Amino acid sequence: MRKNNQACKLWICLLCSFILLPLGTYAQEKGDTIAGKVHEIENVTVTAERVHQQIKSSAPLQQLNRKQLQLQGITDIADALRRFSGVNIKDYGGAGGMKTISVRSLGAKHTAVVYDGVTLSDCQSGQIDLSRFSIDNIQQISLTIGDNEDIFVPARTVASAASLKLQSVTPDFSERENHLTGQIKTGSFGMINPFVRYDQKLGKKISASATGEFMRADNLYPFTLINGDYVTKEKRYNNKIHTYRGEMNLYARPNGRSTLNGKIYYYDTDQQLPGAVILYNARSREKLREQNFFSQVHYRTYWENNLSLQLSGKFNWSQSHYHDEGGKYPGGELNDRYFQREYYTSGALLYTPTKHWSMVYAADYMYNNLNSNTPNNTSPYRHSILQTATLRYQSTNITAVAMLLGSIYINGAKEGTGADNRRKLSPSFSLSWKPLEKEYLYLRASYKDIFRVATFSENYFDRMGSRDLRPEKAQQFNVGATYQNNFATWLPSFSMTVDGYYNKVKDKIVAMPYNMFIWNMVNLGKVDIWGIDANVNSTFQLAERYALTLTGNYTYQYAVDKTDPDVVYYKHQIAYTPRHSGGASLAFENPFVNCSFHATGVSKRYIASENRPSNQMDGYIEYGLSFYHTFKTRKLTYNVRGDIINLGDKQYDIVKSYPMPGRNYKLTCSINF
Questions:
Q1: Cα–Cα distance between 109 and 127 in angstroms, integer?
Q2: Which of 466, 521, 552, 648 has the fewest CB atoms lying closer than 10 Å?
Q3: How far apart are CA 415 and CA 376, in angstroms?
Q4: How many helices (H) and strands (E) does the chain have?
Q5: pLDDT for residue 6
Q6: Radius of gyration, CA atoms only, the chain
Q7: What Å distances lie between residue 513 and 462, 510, 518, 519, 566, CA to CA?
């Protein structure tokens, strides 16, 4: 352990030297450039066709901006992700219910969630609850599978199979120096959600914003409980939630070539946990209180010697308090508390010797720890050092990227023995080729070798955890084609992407029974995943100020268990993975009331490894309808929006025995000063 600590200190010193050395030699100068020339651009009118980034990307990239979020009738972040291909969302139902993302059947722990340039973390479970973030404060959502030409990023961003990036709203002071937005959202099942945002320009080089919101809901929605011939009408009891969320942001431009952004975030939720629906036992006494605070800073600057530097730092603290009642607990109740902390720093250096070649070196360091009041608490901790070396070639018709990620994980525990240390090199490659000079057709291919280490729960949780778990490895192969064109004035925008992929997972971490009462985490699983993702977007200009926008996505996934040829579920579809899934939306923009009709659906799934009828969950299609309009006066802007969710009142589960709400409504009114 002493050697590990000495090695960790050495790496920390090297990283700090890397971060501080460029700062010591930096002299501020005016200008804004990467190539060493000063550019000042004002009032530019672009007449050439704009090629969307997801069309040119050398690896699959899907994006939704703020206008598209409204145009497609999207109600929350999970709803937005259902409009992406290759995505499975686990949703436990109700306003504020836990929502996690799995990309191409690799699992939520293989997806990094990045908020304003810095990766979010949960060292205990390894997955991020997307319900913690408000769609009302999001400017853009993007999902990258593998690594593409966006190479000037922290090493941690590319240390997962896929990265989901959430970009918050940035203030616009082009017309005035302050803005105030007040919004109230109300809906079925006792949902009330007020939201306020204030932006202020503090000077020529600095501005700030603050947001705050509160959400409460009873979530007492009806559902039908079916058990053979026995059918009853029930309600989802013990499902109340109260959530508080606040953010403060600082935006600074020390000079023409530098930006400095800071953020403080706080989240507090107190919710009842309804549990799985069980016949004759529909009520639960479980409760969960979660708190999360983090502060982060991100600095980026450009120098005249073709060098660019970005630095990031973050502190994260969170706690969860699980409460349950029953005679099985001493004193009649259980109160488990978990606390986790993270200290994070990152530095990246970009060098662009010519207009075609770029290279990046990035280094990240994280320290995580976890402690609790449980009897078997070991207080584990982990030092993580990630480094990337990246080379990119970019010309008019070719983009090629090669990256090598080096990962070192040093584990320990204050009480007892720590998990095994891990280290690995992970290469990735991507290529995009434009074969025709006058057509926006791109062919692409990518490969990524990635892995994830076990979470603290998998390593240490009670009697299930195992200290010697090997990393879960995944190899990703992708080939695809993208196309964009403006065919006519009545069809000013058309784009489509099609990708075929193969993922191979080894040493999958699964829970296996040791006996009737004890389960252990082991490396056992092997999974083969074959799939196709397709997306189409088109806009039809019917007349001036009248337009139809059609979007669609489709995913085919053949994801089968290849662990043991002798078991009955060999080559069966893995749990909760539909063979077919997709969605579509049709939006009509006009001067009166804009409207959007949308649908998402999946085919049948299975809740366990064995694909037998008793484990089958039926497929479903959910429809929705949205109406919205904007009124403008001299100083104020009013927005009114109505949503009908689950228009057909379809009863379905995304997670077995966690019924989703039937038909419900939302009404949103906002005023911008």
A1: 5
A2: 648
A3: 9
A4: 5, 35
A5: 42
A6: 25
A7: 14, 10, 6, 4, 18
